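User: Study the fold:
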Amino acid sequence: MTDQPKHQQETSYIVRQREIMYAAAVEAERRPLLFSGLWFHDDVRNNFYYASYLFAAAVDDNLELPFSREDAKRKAEAVLLETVRLQNRMPGTPLYGHWPLGLSPAPQEAAPHELPVEIMGSLMVWFCKRYSARFSAGLRVAFHTAIGHIYRSGFFRKQVAEFGHHEAKYTAAKLIFGQLFEDEELREDGRHSLEITLAHIRAKGMPEYGSLPWFWHWVQAFTCAWELEEDSSVREMLGGMLDFLWAERSQWYLQGAWAGAHSRGWPHDVPADGNVLHDYVQFGDFALPAEMPRTEYAGFLYYEAPEEVRSTALNRQLPVEVCKKTEKVVAGSPERQPALHSYAYICKDYAAGGMWERVEEFDNEQLRWAFSLPVPAAEGVNRLYFFHPGQGYQPGDPRHQSPYMEVLYHRNTVLSLFPVPEGADTAIVGVLPLGEWIRQPKALLGYAGNVYFAVYVSQDYELLERSSYLEVTSKNMPGGVVVEALSTDQAAELGIYGLEEFAAAAMKRAPEFTEGEGLSAAYTAWSGNERLQLSIDNKHTGILSQINGKPVLFEHYNV
């Protein structure tokens, strides 16, 4: 892909965007409308996204559609009109210019919410500019009226404090609405916000490491602003922002998978990578999935990542280690927050890694570590990980971890200890991808997606078959888990050519777990025959992570 001439790359991305447009339009056309005249009552934005794709497909003569263009256009316009009319258009009222988020049970009675307009407002400006010539007169008036209310609401007139996805969307909106309404003061605020945000993330790292789908809101908001921007100097700065974002994405990319730790993840991102449309358009090294849990505007917006960024993402023939440092910002806290350290080992068949530190995140949605398979390689879930359930956890939704875990990452191996205190639930939960698995009393040896996995558990476990993954439950913690992965190529270098051979060899290498004066796990990894040790004292305050007797240090971690 990276060796293609630029015009061929552009043609390829257009083809991929039309695939998304076609799939979304077909889904929208076949889906019956609810009594409200909308398709969705869960999130108002879904009506806007699907209606946008249906309208765009209906007026695109290059698409062959299995339905009437005129009927599809009328349906799309009707949904767009119903959606736009849900805006609060009463000046002086709370959340003036905003839309409700959830619409049940009666959309017309749903209270406005602060979130939808953050991204939808900017996208409406883009869609109106691109397609308003094909709008009916009524829809054109409705869009222009709604955009005027958005501008007068001033929702984006906030200062940058935490450098998160909300402020990223405010910054893009300042530039978009400032230009549209010739508000130079707002434009200057937008330029300043963009400048300090870009300077901060270049110096301190992305504060929302692996935060999905919010990372994609950064990408969408700034791509939308870049496509609309008329000032060359501001457009260049927006290009710098998008270059940084795609460079960040490329570091953790493996054929649609997001390797390593996540600060937040919804059910369509954990336990499996499902929100992959922006990756699909940019990189195109996997097939468009049948399920599209977040369509958003991946089929419309596009900024071509730099060639070296695309090469980083697409060339995984040689294993790499990614060692990144991030400084998180907490608004209102005068104290400098401790640095966070992310690690990933990425090769062509899998990735392993995570965050060394535990972090309190909104909704407690941090995924501390995982092994990831490429999206095309796995049937069902493409991750393997373990955690101790915490606040917000529900059976069947393997997210929301507790603070009770310590880790050691080294290439293709992860050691984790679970110092669960007395009085807490003693069970840990694990997720295994579907494949072939050999069960041993305290180990699971498996093969999935061209990768062998050796999973060692210090306590007995139970296995439950979920629809898209295997769930492991191991009780009676404190204890630990050690996981090592080998691709078939890596195994062949060791003289291993099948799962039975792998399992037999792996059982001879079982780690040593000890309890008593604290917890510890020691393991000799296949990779380099290196000795790994992780220990925690009885008070769970002293943590020792060693590789070949030397402590793990973070001097080489950088932004």
